[in-house]
Each structure stands twice: as structure tokens, then as C-alpha cells.
């Protein structure tokens, strides 16, 4: 096979000349092709078959032990002008970057097959969707891309019809972290990634295209590409409202997207549209509409259990690729938090499990599964128009300081709230875990251009519509003095979403605080909630003095963006600063 798209044909030939594969395979996305890839990988050890009776068509992939998460220090935005990448990104000049990475691609596919993977991000017939082509030498990447995107013949047909596509070149190279780079050339709509086979480093449709290149395109075209889940909340009256929520990696997006309402909230239903990425467009009706560019979930396995996320657990018993989980004696997948009645015998590296050597499953072990397998999948997941968003929620993992929930006063204040998000680092990226860092809009690793320009782009929406979503901030991760989570989280988070949606409808009460309106305990549905009144009080209070210190930290952070900082953001900053100062002097008076 080949293509009628001249640019694509020429690019594939050019890449083949550079990388010198033994074979070229154009992916059609068919079931037969997928089966062939699985057979190939079972043969060469890339995949291990799991128990086919309990888990039909489920396989385990063990990645190289030094290739288990995104590597932010090896990720670059290569723009002509360094300022365009901003202090939030690593930067190399495009010419230098191409030269450096092409020397690693030189001959790297000898003895391998070059797969051409056409894919569509978003419903195949949506005007909001965008196509790309990933060239890769990893059958594991191809198999994952088939689950995570609309991959194959239909995407190629769209590319041939439309012409344009994002180019992504990927090779596992020698998997050495010394020769690993993930480079983005937004001005050329091009991605080059070598030396990793893992997740966001290698499945180029996801973070590289849908967020880093996507955010760049979104800015110039007037939309938003965000690290957000999309969920529909149906109330007992049968009305569904959609929420988009941005939490940093491994901070609860997948879980919130498919939560199961607590037994004490009969009649409530949750509809999953997306668990990681949202593309948001302002429509003529003045509302922000969202599509999920993905077709599957690449979700965190640890912590996924019957009590925390039953919807996820149940979708994982067939047609799933697991990466870096442990296995039981009868070859069932296992991870911490899955099932106390089962025990792991082989750890994620393939060695006999020894609790003294760490967890059985890698903390960033993942499942790859089609969204269609989720019991709560929204009937609108393929809707070309997307869904209208009523509320945008920002959040982070903060053991201290951030209350359970507060509301932004308006859109512009909401941009400050989003830009001020901080969160403890997690195993989703290499490096220290549990360190609080700034992660504006949960996009620190994913914004493909200067954050200050990005906040300016967000602010610009304020003047375009008066029907924008209301903006909120949540924190499910407050801990008490013993290090225990104070809020039960998971399904119980629906109680907070209920207050949020009631606020959007102008129904729920709140009190004004210097950081924005907040519910009192009585404003939240606490029927049968297993949280003491004192704890709830603590979760719903703010310490003005500590917030003042937080604000000074935010000032230092913003100051790094110098002249690029939008004035509107500093104005919002001043408003909050003065409100905190007033609260503080009232306290001490
Ligand atoms: P990425 O895929 O990396 O973007 O992560 P994500 O934001 O989708 O996070 P996910 O929902 O997979 O959750 C990550 C971890 O946080 C899992 O171990 C969950 O069990 C845990 N988690 C999710 N929601 C909650 C919650 O409400 N409370 C607590 N305590 N833990 C949670
Ligand atoms: C994340 O880290 O936010 C993920 C996993 O969703 S990855 O695909 O590796 O980026
Ligand atoms: Mn993510």
C-alpha cells in the first residue's frame, strides 16, 4: 500500500532512506492486522499472554526498566525563537535539534519494520478532529495507537481528502536514556522521538500531538487543547451537564471521569466522554464545546480496585494491553490496590516478587483499553459536535493548604486559579515523587509554547462570550497529621461536583472568601458521608496567612515570565493579594 497524498508518500520515502528499515508496513487498522502484531510480539517476547480464560485477549508488556515514564528533561520544544517556547519548556534551535536527532535516526530501523500509522484525533467525521501520521518501528506502539486513536484506513482517507497532517517520527532506538529525545517542531507540525517506547514519549498522538502541537495550533486558531477529562453528570431529573477537569498526571482524571455515584445519591449517573485530553471550541451559541481527541484510555493501574474505580476494573478483563503490572500464579494481571484476595508472584520486571524490593507493579504501570469497554461510556463520545461544558475544574494533589473546593469569581479570576495550580509530583514522569511544583492548568509538561502567552490566550476568551463555563478548584488529597487522606475521594467526589453544577445553575449557596466563593459544610450533600464535622470544617476553611505565602511563591513563579506576562493576570493577582491582606488584618484586629 501507499498513498495518493504526495507529501505523505515523500515523507515516508525520506524517513526510510534515513532509517533503513527492512520492510515498510502501511497500517490499515484492521482486526487481522492487530492479531498479526500480537502474534509477532508473543513470538519475540514483547508481549506475554495473560490468563486467556479470565482475561481474553489481554497481554502484558514489560518495558525496559529505565523506560517506565515520561522524561520531561529529555523533552524539547524547538521553535525558531526561544521566547516562543518560554521558560516552561526545554528549547533547542530547530536546525540543531534536527541534526542532533537525525544522527540518532540514521540507520536505526535496520532489521526492523517501519510502520506507517495514520490516525485521527477526535471523531472521524468531526470538523474539530485533526489527523496525524506516526512512523514507528515499535509494534507495541502500533497496537497501542490502534486502541488509543481512530487508526488506519479511515484516517488515511481523511488525510488524502484534506491534505494536512501532523508528522510524528518515532523509533525505540537502543532504549538508552543517554540517546533519548522527544522533540517538537510546532512551526513544522512535526514531532521526532527516539529512545523510548513508553506512553507519552512514544504514542505520539497523545501528549506530543494532542497537547504540545495541539496547544500551539489552538492558540493560532482560537481554541484550547487541554489536559482535561470530560464527564457528563446526569441528575435525578434526567438532565446531563458536562464538566471538564484538569488535574496533573496521576492526580485523578481517569477516576473522576468514570466515578460511580455513592449509594446515597440515587438517580445520579456519570457518563465518560474522555479521561485525559479535551479540545475546546467556542461555538456560535457562546458556549465552549469539547471533544475527546482520543478513543481509549492509557490509565494508571495502581489504585484501580473494586471500591475505588469499579468501572475501570471491569473494563480491564478483556482486550487490554497492560504495561509493567505484576502477575499472579495463574497469569492474571495484578497491581497494588487491585484485589486483596490475589497475590502477585512475578513482579513488573518479570522477577519473582519480593516485597523487600519494592512494589509488585510499577507505580506508573498502565492499561491500554478502548473507551467503548467502559460501562459508563457516554453515548456522545463520537458526537462530531462534542459536548457543551458547564464547568471547568482545576485541581492538584496537595497534602496541605488547598481546600476541598472553591470557585473562581469569574473567568479571568479562573485563569489565575488555573495558572496557580501546584501539585505533588507523581510516578507518571521520571524524577522525585511527592515534591510540590507549579503545574499551571496541569499543562506544565504539555504546553507547546510560552506559558505566559498561553495564559494570555486563556484570558482572551473573557471578551468573546458571556456564556463561558464557571471555573472551580478542587483538592481530593488533603492529609491529616497522620498522613491519612481527609476526604474519602473517588465516588464521593460526586458530592462536590453536585455543588459545582448547582453553582453553575445559580442554585447552591456559598460564602465569599479571599480566594473565591466556597461552600459551607451545609451546602454540600453530606447524607451518610463518613467524614466528621471537624474534618469537613477543616477541608472547607482557608488559612489567610499561609495563602499569602502561597501567593508570594506564585509571584516569584510568574515573574520568570517577564515581559510576556499578560497584564490581566497580574491584575487578578493583585485582587487576590489585597483580599487576603484585608482578611489578615480583620483576623489580627
Ligand atoms: P494520568 O493518566 O497520568 O494523566 O493520570 P490521571 O489524572 O488520570 O489519574 P488517575 O485517575 O489514574 O489516578 C491516579 C492515582 O490517584 C490512582 O492511584 C488513583 O487511585 C488515585 N486517585 C484518584 N482519585 C482519587 C481520589 O479522589 N482520592 C484519592 N485519595 N486518590 C485518588
Ligand atoms: C500522563 O502522564 O499525564 C499520562 C500518561 O496521561 S502519558 O501517556 O505517559 O503521558
Ligand atoms: Mn495525562
Secondary-structure blueprint of this entry?
Elements: H1 6-19, E1 23-26, H2 31-44, E2 48-49, E3 59-61, E4 75-77, H3 82-85, E5 90-91, H4 94-105, E6 113-121, E7 130-136, H5 139-148, E8 150-151, H6 153-162, E9 166-171, E10 181-185, E11 190-194, H7 199-202, H8 205-221, E12 224-226, E13 229-234, E14 240-246, H9 253-257, E15 269-274, E16 278-282, E17 288-291, E18 296-300, H10 310-315, E19 321-323, E20 326-328, E21 333-334, E22 344-346, E23 366-370, E24 387-395, E25 405-407, H11 411-419, E26 422-424, E27 436-438, H12 451-460, E28 470-474, H13 493-504, H14 533-539, H15 544-559, H16 567-588
Helix pairs in contact: 2-5, 11-16, 15-16
What can you tell me about this protein's structure?
- The chain is of the alpha/beta class.
- It has three domains: 6-47 and 64-222, Phosphoenolpyruvate Carboxykinase, domain 1 (3-Layer(aba) Sandwich), CATH 3.40.449.10; 226-295 and 381-583, Phosphoenolpyruvate Carboxykinase, domain 3; 296-373, Phosphoenolpyruvate Carboxykinase, domain 2.
- Helices cover 29% and strands 21% of the residues.
- Strands 1, 4, 5, 6, 7, 8, 9, 10 and 11 form a nine-stranded mixed beta sheet that branches. Strands 12, 13, 14, 15, 16, 17, 24, 25 and 28 form a nine-stranded mixed beta sheet that branches.
- Helix 2 (31-44) packs antiparallel against helix 5 and helix 11 (411-419) crosses helix 16.
- The structure holds guanosine-5'-triphosphate, sulfopyruvate and manganese (II) ion.
- The site of guanosine-5'-triphosphate has 22 residues, from helix 9 and strand 18.
- Residues 70, 199-200, 206-207, 249, 276, 298, 428 line the site of sulfopyruvate (SPV).
